[in-house]
Amino acid sequence: MTFLVTGSEGFIGRNLIRRLKEKYGENCPIREYDFKDGEIDEMPDLTDVKMICHLGAVSSTTEINLDKIMRWNYDFTIKLMHLAVENKISMWTASSASVYGTRCLGGLRALEEDNKGHQEPMSFYSWSKYLIDRHIDTMTPYWKSIGSKPIASFRLFNVYGPGEEDKLHNGQSSPVTTFVSQAKNDGVIRLFEGSENFFRDFIHVDDVITRFINWMESPIYWGVYNVGRGNAISFQQVAEWVAEKYNAKIEYVPMQGHIRKNYQEWTLANMDKISKAFNYPMDYVTTEMDEYIASLD
């Protein structure tokens, strides 16, 4: 099987390629594709491709160039998706828990893929992901009727793990990697005031990729799936684990207004749909965050 991996130079892309080679051998046929400046019709070569792993995107949640986001996150993805359908190639794409917006407050219920009332994108990035998810949901009955291969979207919650360091420069790294960098370099972790009330569903990148591989080994499921842990951890707790590991201090800073506007204070993935599809328990993970932090250099 030849895999096409877009976004192959990114954090999750590099980890995915590593896992594919571990599973299928160093000579596993992988075609890598990363966005370059240019026209959208410069599509990747799909010759002999049997599986498209679409991770490429403008991933900054603070990007304000709407044309740039729509060109790459929407136009490119739609064109690639329809080429997959036309050529009968299975494809999955990475979406984001940011499509749920700021409605996910208070820990009242886990966020469900089919609960339309809990989808309220608040940034250009999250809107671009929501539009792709909606397109998949809308088109799936037709695609099935013409005999195409399955198309799926995975809504990733807060992914952390090795190889995130490149994301530190633009502020897009996970709190785990951000706090570790601050603790090691400055001896001080800078935490927003009120972080004991800010909870996120964190999942290690290897557990995310396990779910990708589960789907790729038996790509019979269509639609949109949450990919999280099904468990929420506060930013305060993450900072305390990192501070203990590196003997660092925690300093509290006010949250700026432009951040507060679109800030998700609480996320928790409802994992029922993907758990039932692949017949594994909701706590099906291999990496606990506190153990991961304790294992770092």
List the defining traits of the structure above.
single chain; 297 residues; alpha/beta; UDP-galactose 4-epimerase, domain 1; 2 domains; 6-stranded parallel beta sheet; 3-stranded mixed beta sheet
Topology diagram in text:
Blueprint: E1 2-6, H1 11-24, E2 30-33, E3 49-54, H2 66-86, E4 90-96, H3 124-145, E5 151-156, E6 158-160, H4 175-186, E7 188-192, E8 199-204, H5 205-217, E9 223-227, E10 232-234, H6 235-246, E11 249-253, H7 257-260, H8 272-278, H9 289-295
Parallel strand pairs: 1-2, 1-3, 3-4, 4-5, 5-9, 6-8, 7-11
Antiparallel strand pairs: 8-10
Description of the structure:
The strands form three sheets. Strands 2-1-3-4-5-9 form a six-stranded parallel beta sheet, sandwiched between helices. Strands 6-8-10 form a three-stranded mixed beta sheet. It folds into two domains: 2-160 and 202-229 and 268-285, Rossmann fold (3-Layer(aba) Sandwich), CATH 3.40.50; 165-197 and 232-263, Alpha-Beta Complex (UDP-galactose 4-epimerase, domain 1), CATH 3.90.25.10. The longest helix is centred in the middle third of the chain and has 22 residues, at 124-145. It has helices spanning 11-24, 66-86, 124-145, 175-186, 205-217, 235-246, 257-260, 272-278, 289-295, and strands spanning 2-6, 30-33, 49-54, 90-96, 151-156, 158-160, 188-192, 199-204, 223-227, 232-234, 249-253. It has 297 residues and is of the alpha/beta class. Helix 1 crosses helix 5 (205-217) and helix 2 (66-86) runs parallel beside helix 3. The radius of gyration is 19 Å and the shape is globular. 38% of the residues lie in helices and 19% in strands. It contains nine helices and eleven strands.
